[in-house]
Design goal:
By secondary structure, the chain is of the alpha/beta class. The chain has 9 helices and 16 strands. The longest helix has 23 residues.
């Protein structure tokens, strides 16, 4: 028997820890002993029932996990291999990582790269992985450190914070876009931002084109912020869009794209193919392995603290990444 955080609807929506047997696990090729998971905003929505995240019931919550392979019928992994899972609908359509055991398809797993321990991978979690995908998109589109400043919105969030740290490690000069300008010291000294800009400047409707400032951008807000970043991006620059915290709308014109050749790169973290996932995790290991950022950006909680932490996250009382030690 092992503990799992199960979401049910019979008929009332409920999340509670329960004990499961190995025979309860879903179909899959790889059995994993889960060592760490994390608490993401999507997890908090699912656990509190405040967002339409869960698609099937009953469901084990948790959109990511890290652990050790117990058995693999596909032959891709050996017992003891350390692996990571992000996305693929885990914690939404399929059983996820807030349990001591998991069984998943081999194609969903990435072997943990050297330079990171299992706790580190969940300190990064889906937020760090998404940040690496966004930075990788800038690189693939030819945005180089010498080309100019990179603006990062939502800089105090998980994706934004890790994006700043990655950019600094890779030699880029970044500007943190945030409403919490009182945290300038942390954004610059710890995460590596070169400067901080008040997010209010980009939060309202702006011009179709602004003065060219940014060589690129990483945006997790959407709406007016994304539109204003695109409008101020230099000729040939790239903006990576990976979130909608401000809104799903995109009140922009085609001017930046047809007059300046700006490229808008969409970042999906759920269904990315394995080679792209592996590249992202290699970047995280090379740039942030052993970094004090991982210790300062995340705190570790026990399983019985997850449900109160989810409520606190939804109420805006929880800051930083939350790692769940599954033991």
């Amino acid at each position: 028997m092992f503990p799992a955080l199960m979401i049910t609807r019979d008929p009332d929506y409920r999340a509670a820890w329960t004990q499961l047997a190995e025979s309860d696990l879903p179909e899959g090729e790889v059995d994993v002993r889960v060592r760490y998971s994390s608490l993401n905003y999507k997890d908090a929505l699912a656990l509190t029932g405040k967002g339409p995240v869960v698609r099937t019931f009953p469901l084990v919550a948790g959109i990511d996990f890290a652990g050790e392979v117990l058995a693999d019928s596909s032959g891709r992994f050996a017992p003891g291999d350390e692996v990571i899972l992000n996305g693929w609908g885990a914690g939404e359509r399929y059983w996820g990582g807030l349990a001591a055991r998991a069984r998943v398809p081999a194609a969903w797993l990435v072997k943990k790269p050297g330079g990171l321990n299992l706790r580190d991978t969940m300190a990064l979690g889906t937020a760090g992985y998404t940040a690496a995908l966004a930075v990788g998109a800038l690189q693939r589109n030819g945005v180089r450190p010498q080309d100019g400043e990179i603006v990062v919105s939502g800089a105090n969030g998980g994706v934004g914070g890790f994006a700043l740290a990655l950019l600094a490690a890779l030699g880029y000069r970044s500007v943190a876009l945030t409403r919490r300008t009182q945290e300038t010291d942390y954004l610059c000294r710890v995460l590596g931002a070169a400067d901080v800009m008040d997010a209010a400047e980009y939060a309202q409707a702006g011009k179709p084109l602004s003065s060219e400032r940014w060589a690129g951008g990483i945006d997790s807000l959407g709406s007016h912020t994304l539109a204003n970043i695109c409008a101020a991006t230099r000729y040939g620059g790239t903006v990576a869009a990976c979130g909608l915290a401000q809104g799903m709308d995109f009140p922009a014109t085609v001017a930046p794209f047809i007059l300046r050749g700006v490229q808008l790169a969409g970042i999906d973290s759920v269904m990315r193919p394995l080679p792209v996932r592996e590249q992202a995790w290699q970047m995280l290991a090379q740039c942030l392995g052993g970094s004090p950022v991982l210790g300062q950006a995340a705190r570790t909680i026990a399983p019985d603290e997850v449900l109160p932490a989810a409520e606190a996250m939804m109420a805006g009382r929880l800051q930083g990444r939350v790692v769940v030690d599954m033991g």
